Amino acid sequence: METSSAGLDTASKSIIVGAGPAGLTAAYQIGKVGGVAVVLEEDSVVGGISRTAERDGWRFDIGGHRFFTKVTAVSELWHEILDEDDFLLRPRMSRIYYDGKFYDYPLKATNALKNLGIWESVLCVFSYIWARIKSPKDQSHFEGWTASRFGWRLYRKFFKTYTEKVWGIPATELQADWAAQRIKNLSLFKAILNAILPRRNQKEITSLIEEFEYPKFGPGMMWEKCHDLVIDQGNEVLLNHKVKRFLHQDGKVVSVQADGPKGPVEFASDSIISSMPLPHLLQAMDPPASEETLKAASSLTFRDFLTVALIVPEEKGFPDNWIYIHSEEVKVGRVQNFGQWSPYLVKEGRTCLGLEYFVNIGDDLWESDDAALIDRAIAELGVLGLVEPELVEGGYVVRMPRAYPMYDNEYHENVEVIRSWISQNAENVYPVGRNGMHRYNNQDHSMLTAMLSVENIYGASHDIWQVNVEEDYHEEIS
Ligand SMILES: Cc1cc2nc3c(=O)[nH]c(=O)nc-3n(C[C@H](O)[C@H](O)[C@H](O)COP(=O)(O)OP(=O)(O)OC[C@H]3O[C@@H](n4cnc5c(N)ncnc54)[C@H](O)[C@@H]3O)c2cc1C
Known about the structure:
By secondary structure, the chain is of the alpha/beta class. It has three domains: about 15-50 and about 70-85 and about 215-300 and about 410-465, FAD/NAD(P)-binding domain (3-Layer(bba) Sandwich), CATH 3.50.50.60; about 100-210; about 300-405, Protoporphyrinogen oxidase, mitochondrial, domain 2 (Polyamine Oxidase, Chain A, domain 2). The chain is about 35% helix and about 25% strand. The chain has helices at about 20-30, 70-80, 110-135, 140-150, 150-165, 175-180, 190-195, 205-210, 220-230, 280-285, 290-300, 340, 365, 370-385, 410-425, 445-455; strands at about 15, 35-40, 50-55, 60, 85-90, 95-100, 100-105, 210-215, 235-240, 240-250, 250-260, 265-270, 270-275, 285, 300-315, 320-325, 335, 350-360, 395-405, 430. β16 (about 320-325) and β17 (about 335) form a beta hairpin. The chain starts with 12 loop residues before the first strand and ends in a 21-residue tail after the last helix. Residues about 1-10, about 200-210 and about 470-478 have low confidence and may be disordered. It binds flavin-adenine dinucleotide. Flavin-adenine dinucleotide binds near residues 66, 305 and 436. Flavin-adenine dinucleotide (FAD) binds near residues 20, 22, 404 and 446.
């Protein structure tokens, strides 16, 4: 057995499924200790959901990818991969558009008061007090969890519409886990306190909220560079290779089959790090997993996403990085201004607005052709009064299937069934990342699960399912 200077079994070969943040991080970490890894990626580009799309020299994200983390090891890795001058430190600004008005987000008491007016504000405060006295009985779902912390009136104005746009289901059918992870544990009381306190007392809050790091050419820059480093380490990243089958015996996966550009290929494997969607991993097992496990896998679902990038004159862009659109009269859920993320994404005198639609594969929006989507996006910008339709120069559409793992009522149980099957039948398979674990992981947690899994391959025993379980990690809805 070959060993590295660190005494690790580096002769063993890891097959890594997916060249997104999790897969590339795993490959890079393996390469650093001299290990052997092959990354199989079905797409023709790297970065997964964290790629930067490029069309006619315009660059934009799938969403908008802030680089923020509480995990030092991840932040160190970002700065190891990219040079210091590749990063921008961006001021953050975002607002909610509701009922024809812009509300600061995170909510600020003074601004909310001004927009709502005295009478409505008083009603909101009473509604909040009432929710504190008589909390909603069922807080296991998004509606109960959020209304208990903000009161029913604020919940209806600022959380319900957007959340239902994102998920496409009533907020009572969405598990509270999502709210707990995505909404800062900011009560109305704390919001008022934040507005009153002098800025110096808010250091901890503002450091997360008011600025973030961003690679100057977008998040894809990180993953393109990481890809190059993996190649320099002597390992392989094979694009256009869709993994179709895992052959397992005696409790382990022994080889992986993929469809490559020249036909089917097979790779012997000592361990598998998988960032492909967890249900797809299960469905690709040969011999097939138990009926119960396959049922759990087919019950895990996703919400899909598409963005329409519109080119407009720079002065028609807004100062925000993004605006949440809570208004019901349009389907768009959020609008990014990519020029506010980085001047390197846009061209002289113009900016690129990304109108984000939360969809299901096969629904009307998903099935619409690009021209119809661009027309709709232009019209909706007009309805919102953000940009006059005739000023839009052109547009591009990018579709992203499976952007959000669904947190429905049964998802947790279904994930448990699958985990248990894997530990008994494919113990050398390490599910990592976002869809790979069916968990609402951002880049940092996706990377951390990959980093810890690599250590597990080399003998550690981290429980990666404990990553990103704390409430109050993220500071907002996104
Ligand atoms: C709208 C939106 C906004 C976001 N904003 C932020 C943000 O501000 N900050 C942040 O840190 N994170 C953000 N995220 C989350 C971030 O995009 C993800 O955490 C990250 O991309 C997950 O990395 P991953 O490698 O686990 O998965 P992915 O990025 O999904 O990559 C998985 C890869 O596996 C490949 N694959 C799948 N199946 C197969 C197969 N069978 N064979 C071969 N390859 C396969 C896919 O093509 C893909 O390239 C956002 C996500 C969305 C949707």
